[in-house]
Amino acid sequence: MFNNKSKSDNSESPVPSGSASLIGSGTSMKGDITSSGDLRIDGTLVGNIICSAKVIIGAGGVVEGDVSGQQADIMGKVSGTIKVKELLQLKSNCHVNGNLYSAKLQIEPAATFNGQCHMTQEEPKSLNSNKQGSDARKDGFQKTPSLAIS
Questions:
Q1: What is the Rg, in whole angstroms, of the alpha carbon atoms belonging to the chain?
Q2: pLDDT tens-digit profile of 57-116?
Q3: With bands split at pLDDT 50, 70 and 90, how would you rate the model's confidence at 145?
């Protein structure tokens, strides 16, 4: 009726999904990184980042490649395209050379950014086709989300 196994006999331990990964300062990597959990880069990465959670590039972090994630905080240097589904924050003293794609963007005054900024909000395709006509202005431009700079 009762299981004779003790808790120490159970060799299966749950692996946390969405755990954070860290590339520490002094570490250099070449290649692409794919992560389902949060990712922090304090070292150097030559390659692309594909993350389904939050990406943090620390003050000493350097990324030479594209960054894709749900959210991102950039404090270091990025040379490449950054695509974020939600909030992208460019913190003081960061240096970004590349295009930005984000629904929300926050840029601190001491941040450096060279490239184009594309504010995108994902909507169902059925709404996009109907909305285009109603948002069209006489000058040919469409309404876009506002840009918040602090």
A1: 20
A2: 999 999 999 999 999 999 999 999 999 999 999 999 999 999 999 999 999 999 999 999
A3: low
The answer to whether residues 85 and 67 touch, using CB atoms and an 8 Å cutoff, is no
pLDDT value for 120: 76
C-alpha pair distances (Å), 52 with each of 49, 70, 95, 128 = 10, 6, 23, 24
Whole-angstrom distance, CA of residue 88 vs CA of residue 69: 9
Cα dihedral 39, 43, 45, 50 in deg (nearest 10)? 10
Cα atoms in the Cβ-side hemisphere of radius 13 Å centred on 76:
21
Tokens of 30: 């070449």
Are 89 and 74 within 8 A, CB to CB? yes
